[in-house]
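INTERNAL AUDIT FORM
Audit reference: QA-55
Scope: verify that the stored structure record matches its stored sequence.
Auditor: D.O.
Record contents follow.
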Amino acid sequence: MPINHAIWSVDAIPQPLPITRLPSEALLEQMIISRPDILSGQWMLIGQQEHTGFGGRIDLLAIAPDASLVLIELKRDRTPREVVAQALDYAAWVDTLTADRIAQIYQRYSNGGSLSAAFKEKFGEELDEEALNDSHQIILVAASLDDSTERIINYLNARDIAINVIFFQVFQHGAQQLLSRAWLIDPGETQVNVATTASARVAGEKEPWNGEYYVSYGSRSWADARQYGYISGGGGSWYSQTLKMLAPGDRVWVKIPKTGYVGVGRVTEPVQPMRDMVFSTASGEHAAFDVLSDAPEFMARDGDPEKAEYAVRVEWLDTVDAAHAFDEIGLFGNQNTVCQPTTPKWRHTVERLKTRFLKWDGK
C-alpha cells in the first residue's frame, strides 16, 4: 500500500503544504550525516560512499547497538525494483566484511577515529568484536516505491531477509522546506530478522524456532523486575520495539548480559508504557514511577515516545538474584531485548537452563 504524507496548516480552514523535492541526493545524504536521527537515533554512521569492489558504492553504512551493520541506499525520487537488486548485491559485499576492514572503513569516514571508542561513546557498551557484523540489514531511503518493488521488499522481509524502506517527503512552507519520514514495515520486524539471522549465523546453521523467547535484561534493576513481575526496555526504540513480539502465555528466559541467566517466566500482558504500570505492594497498589528504583531515569525520558520505557508483565516461574546467575561456556547470548533464536545453540541453552530452573513449567 503506498505511503502518503501530508502536512496541514493549523488554521480555521486548514491548508495542505505543497509537496516539493530536494535538489539532489547529495543534499539528502549530507542532511543525514549532519543528523543521523533523521533515519534512526539508534544507529551510528561509520561509512560513506564506500566502494564495494563490485562496480558500485554504498551511500552510507551504519552500525546498530548489537554490532550488526546497516546498509543505507538513498534515492531522491521514486525507487524502481532494480534498486533492490543493487542493494542485495551490495549486501553480499557487506556480508564479507571482517572486523579489521570495518574498523578501516570507520577510520576513513572519521578521519582516523577509533571504531571501538566511538561505539562505546554512542551506545555505552564495549564493542564485541566477535559479534561485529554477525548480521546486517538493508535500508532504502526513497520518496516512493512502485508496486513491484514494494511486493519484493515485503516478500524478502517475510522470509527473514532484513530489508526495509524509509519514505520521506519534502514540503514547502514559505521559504523553508520540511522533511517528513515514515517506515514501510515496522522497524521492529526488521530488527527481529536481524537478530534471528545473527543467532543462526553464529552457530553456522539454522533450525525451527522452539517457541522459547530469549530476553536480555541489562542496565536496570533485576531486583525490581523480579519483585514486581515484569521485564522492560527503553532509552531508544531499538531497545523497546522487540517487546512487541511477546504475547500472553509466551515463556521467556532472562539473561543479564555479562552476568548470566536469572529467571524464567510466562508473559501475562502485552507491552505497555511503564508509566501505565501499577504494582501491588505491602501498602497497596502503586504506580510504577512511585516504587521502582529506576523511576527517576524512566521519568526523565518519558516525554519522548522513542526513548520512553516500555514493560511487559510476567509471572515468574523460577528466578535467582544476580549474584547467583547461571552462566557457562556455550550458552546463547544476544544484545536484543527480545529475540526468537533459530540456532541449535538456543536449544542446548534451554535444555541446560531447565536443569537449573526446576520450576520452569510452573509445577
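Auditor finding: record pair retrieved intact. The two ends are 47 Å apart (CA to CA).
Action required: none
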